[in-house]
Amino acid sequence: MSQIARSKDNKYELLYFPFHGVVTALRAMFAISDANYTFTHPIDWAKEKPTTPFGSLPVMYETDPATGHTLELAELSAIESYMGDKYGWMGDNLWERAQIQMYHSLTQAVFDKWVTTVVRAPKENQEQMTEIYTEKILPEWVETHERVLQAKGCDGHYVGDKFSIADLKTATTLDNLISISGDRFLSREKTPAIFAVYDTVEKMPKYAAWKASAEWKAYDDVNKKLFGF
Ligand SMILES: N[C@@H](CCC(=O)N[C@@H](CS)C(=O)NCC(=O)O)C(=O)O
After folding, report:
1. CB of 171 closer than 6 A to ligand 1?
2. Could you give the number of structural domains in the chain?
3. Which residue's C-alpha comes closest to atom 20 of ligand 1?
4. 203 Cα: distance to centroid of ligand 1 (angstroms)
5. To test ligand 1's pocket by mutation, which of 57, 81, 82 has the most ligand atoms within 8 angstroms of CB?
6. Based on the domain organization, do 57 and 145 belong to the same domain?
7. Using omega within 30 degrees of 0 as the cis cutoff, is the peptide bond preceding 192 cis?
8. CA dist., res. 188 & res. 200, Å (int)
9. Is residue 200 located within the same domain as residue 158?
């Protein structure tokens, strides 16, 4: 199995629903890599659910074309770190890797909290939960990340001078956070260091091409229809 995981010629399939959901950064990882990949979607989720490792998506399948053996990996963070390790987006040493995971985890958490506190709240509680999110949870993330990135010198990266999965997670999540709160907390004037990360990622040619693609736009349209952003 670890032999298969080491190969760079493998074919990847990323199974997830036909919207961005939680995989905006993960899909971008495939798009900016040179991996041979396809994005697939469940046809009948109720039937397919029990066939996945933990009854949820995303799931990544990685096949060695030489042997036909397939590895199956679930859990968003595990897949993102795995791709990050494969493609060199986890820093240059153990400590950098840990720092990258720390910032990546903080940003994944601020998105997950939106889903758990607001999106999944009963209709009658939604206004109150939105207020808790925008008054407390989101400003805390903004303050922490702007402070950390300012201290580092506003250079467009969380760790070292290289692109990492922490940079990508913030860049992709920022679009959602701005949809939620407008420019109340996040703007080029108020949070220049966070925007330096955003701009650095947006300028990556393969990322920009992916974000401009019809495939990305199709996921975006469904996302907007279902979740409003
Ligand atoms: N812990 C999982 C959670 C993923 C998750 O929440 N997936 C949702 C879609 S965003 C899902 O599969 N929902 C369908 C279901 O639970 O039946 C991860 O990090 O990958």
Report:
1. no
2. 2
3. 75
4. 30
5. 57
6. no
7. no
8. 13
9. yes
